[in-house]
Amino acid sequence: MARLLRAGHPWVFRNAVQRPLALPEGAVVPVMDPDGYLIGHGLNEPEGAIALRMVSLAAEFEWNEDEMLARVRAAVRRRGTSVPSEACRLIHSEADGFPGLAVDRLGSHLLVYKYAKIAETYLDALVPILEQELKPTGIYLQDRIRGVTPDDRRPPAFHLAGKPAPPEIEVDEDGLKFLVDVTAPVSPGLFLDLREGRRLFEAWSRERSVCNLFSFTGAFGLRALRGGARSVTHVDAAARSHARCRQNLSASKMDPEAIEAITGDAFALLEKFRQRGRVWDLVIVDPPPFSNVKGSTFSALKDYGELMRAVSGVVGPGGLVLAISNAVRLGEEEFLLAVGEGVHAAGRAARLVGECGLPPDFPVPPAFIEGRYLKVKLLQFD
């Protein structure tokens, strides 16, 4: 554990702590190795598998407003001009020195994500710093802690500071326009961490027929159209996702009816497509880590192989599949194994011809394997 921490891993797991910590949540705790040498300092987290979240490897450390201000400025400086100015991650949790918390810029508003309760211990001090340094129109907080309500449905994002946001904010990504809602309970409507995947997808779309499974608000479809795709089909369980896609097409000066929209369960539709002999040249597979649609449950951890088997039935000869997983618990090796098994079960063969991961505004410490949650793999079929 000491080696991992010194290499930059930000978590001390509870089973590695030799003595119970009778300290308040958020207390700064010196972290020592088994020989009694100081490793650094962490914030105490009384509950859960993580006992301490590292905040510094320095010999002397104080967790206060001055330190937070320096870290916010450093995070902004690191990003420079290499990321979109209207839609990007400004603070990426532990990598930028803020355990259990992230901050996105969406237009003139900021959206703060709380991933762990520990963030509550310093959030009140951080918000005025964000206002001072970034001068947003308003700031919202989205609670991403699992089970925040009895039925596990997340409430809308909470207004923290500044002016309330309008229902729709238009943001630019590489010249395309997307409407986002910073008050939404789960996603504002554009997954910023998939930016590199969208760029990769656009580059391979030219003169190909495209099927976008789990299409959500259609960001990949817009990329495909601009990339010169012959046709684009979207499949999603929610009709409202298709409606937002049409709005995004209009905002980007594209025909709002340029994409075929099909609503329904992906597994059932894939089987229907297979039976009818319908195939595409390029298929994107970007399922949620977990979903339950009309009693049909999908878990990326258990079901990705079966999904790839179904997808393989609608890929034309020599076709491509962009397979994506953002399930933290589904590691790289397990993901590739599930993909390969699914392709083989369908009687097909495929090869990995491209891949990408998180964009530069989502940095990860080298030793923090859990932080590299996003897997984007481009496969070419036989």
TrEMBL record:
Transmembrane segments: none annotated. CDD domains: AdoMet_MTases, RlmI_M_like. One of its GO terms (biological process) is methylation. The keyword Secreted does not apply. One of its GO terms (molecular function) is methyltransferase activity. Residues 98-363 form the S-adenosylmethionine-dependent methyltransferase domain. Residues 3-56 form the RlmI-like PUA domain. This is Class I SAM-dependent rRNA methyltransferase. It comes from Nannocystis punicea.
